[in-house]
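AB hydrolase-1 domain-containing protein, pasting as requested.
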Amino acid sequence: MATGVNRKISAASARSHTRRANKSSSFHLPSGILRTTLAVLFIGFLAWAYQVTQPPPPNICGSPDGPPITAPRIKLRDGRYLAYKEHGVPKDEAKYKIVSVHGFTSCRHDAVVADTLSPDVVKDLGVYIVSFDRPGYGESDPDPNRTLKSIALDIEELADQLGLGSKFYVVGVSMGGQVVWNCLKHIPHRLAGAALLAPVINFWWPDLPANLAAEAYSQYKLRDRWAIRVAHYTPWLTYWWNTQKWFPICSAISRSPDILSKQDKELITKLLDDKDNHVAQVRQQGEYESVHRDLNIGFGSWEYTPLDIQNPFPNNEGSVHLWQGDEDIMVPVTLQRYIVQNLSWIHYHELPGSGHLFPHADGVSETVIKSLLGVK
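Structure tokens follow.
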């Protein structure tokens, strides 16, 4: 008869056996499936990132679902339309004809010189002023191919189609002042004179001293340093940066009061009252084709700098004036001083105690226009 054998197993041996059993029974995801899953997740992330960085198509004025057309417009050489607004005496009776270039996040209705110049001065001098919506603003078609030169050619074509003659004056405010630099560079032969009011400066203009540019740049609010850095180095991210909710966006786009000087805060109420009737028109075709493209062009890589420009009036047949407030938080006065010191043909007017909105102060427009026209 068989005899049973009783084997005694120690507790340690049992635990070791259990661990081996558990280890051998754990689940492993095959490496091929893991790589595929990670690849799908990565591709999904790229697709999401691409989508959030792409601006929506512009809401073109006059299109089936777009804003209505209320302004007179001209058709440009490439089929785009440019909206404009006329001020002052009839152009057929005018002695002086001026093209007004609006600034950042503005439109043809923001023609500060035309709006604040007294009717008596307009009549006595015989001044005609035409303001226009820069591409993508107001009721002017966007220009996806916009360059520094193209906006100058838009102004030349506007003047020609309106019959302003062989020469005319240009006045630009803020970002519109950059456009005046473009006119001085690309169509100087068409200008009778030019005025730049607090023109925006590109910190990456190569002719600016690096230490001076860096010092001025450091005085910007952190949010604005980031906004213009994105526009310069990664313009394809400008739309995302200024629409995301994680970080503060460009102060000018968000209308932050942090960039206003003491004088600006005194003038802003008057400015906003005047703007109430048309503020909705400014970005009605989309933020990307208006303010975002402005940032990309204004702070992008320029093929020239203002310091490259030659005197367009070597025989004093006209003049160029640059006006700047010494307490302007948006445009550093130190860089403006450097530019005019190296362009001796520019008539420089620095206004003590003034900020970026000084053109809206009482009497400034009259002084600017009379200086430009060389009259008293």
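Note for the archive: Residues 232 and 301 are 7 Å apart (CA to CA).
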